[in-house]
């Protein structure tokens, strides 16, 4: 167990032993991202659908606009946790709710690049219902999942 100290506070022994809190935060953040996805996809679909409908059938409009709405919704929904971790001192809605945050290995704030990296690797960590991430955390004294190791971050109690 390492102590992470900076102007942002410090993590003491046991502060990274928060697997349950991380799981709950992940569920909440997943819901936030899903809602964001829905809003963006519906908005893009409505906006582009109006332009694309013209003389096309409803099915043709859906087939033309649907993929664009899905891609944009996925991108924006996926960027929400990245931007929140960067702008909210390592917190997302879920992390704030359960009292945890992401810090860099030196205890400082998480940068945009590190937040992006750790969240991109969530696709790997999330495989098999997060069993890959749980296995990675169980082999790390600081409970780092693969994304945390690659990004040089750790999740601690606030």
TrEMBL record:
<feature type="transmembrane region" description="Helical">
    <location>
        <begin position="120"/>
        <end position="139"/>
    </location>
</feature>
<dbReference type="InterPro" id="IPR010432">
    <property type="entry name" value="RDD"/>
</dbReference>
<keyword id="KW-1133">Transmembrane helix</keyword>
<dbReference type="GO" id="GO:0016020">
    <property type="term" value="C:membrane"/>
</dbReference>
<feature type="transmembrane region" description="Helical">
    <location>
        <begin position="31"/>
        <end position="52"/>
    </location>
</feature>
<protein>
    <submittedName>
        <fullName>RDD domain-containing protein</fullName>
    </submittedName>
</protein>
<dbReference type="Pfam" id="PF06271">
    <property type="entry name" value="RDD"/>
</dbReference>
<keyword id="KW-0472">Membrane</keyword>
<keyword id="KW-0812">Transmembrane</keyword>
<feature type="domain" description="RDD">
    <location>
        <begin position="19"/>
        <end position="152"/>
    </location>
</feature>
<feature type="transmembrane region" description="Helical">
    <location>
        <begin position="59"/>
        <end position="84"/>
    </location>
</feature>
């Amino acid at each position: 167990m390492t102590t992470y100290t900076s102007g942002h506070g410090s993590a003491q022994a046991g502060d990274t032993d928060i697997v349950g809190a991380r799981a709950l935060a992940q569920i909440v953040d997943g819901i936030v991202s899903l809602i964001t996805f829905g809003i963006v996809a519906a908005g893009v679909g409505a906006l582009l659908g109006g332009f694309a409908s013209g003389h096309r059938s409803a099915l043709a409009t859906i087939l033309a606009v649907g993929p664009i709405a899905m891609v944009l919704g996925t991108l924006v929904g996926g960027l929400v946790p990245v931007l929140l971790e960067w702008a909210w001192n390592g917190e997302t809605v879920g992390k704030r709710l359960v009292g945890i945050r992401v810090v860099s290995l030196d205890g400082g704030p998480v940068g945009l690049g590190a937040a992006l990296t750790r969240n991109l690797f969530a696709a790997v960590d999330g495989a098999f219902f997060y069993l890959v991430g749980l296995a990675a955390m169980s082999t790390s004294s600081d409970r780092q999942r693969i994304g945390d190791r690659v990004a040089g971050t750790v999740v601690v109690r606030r």
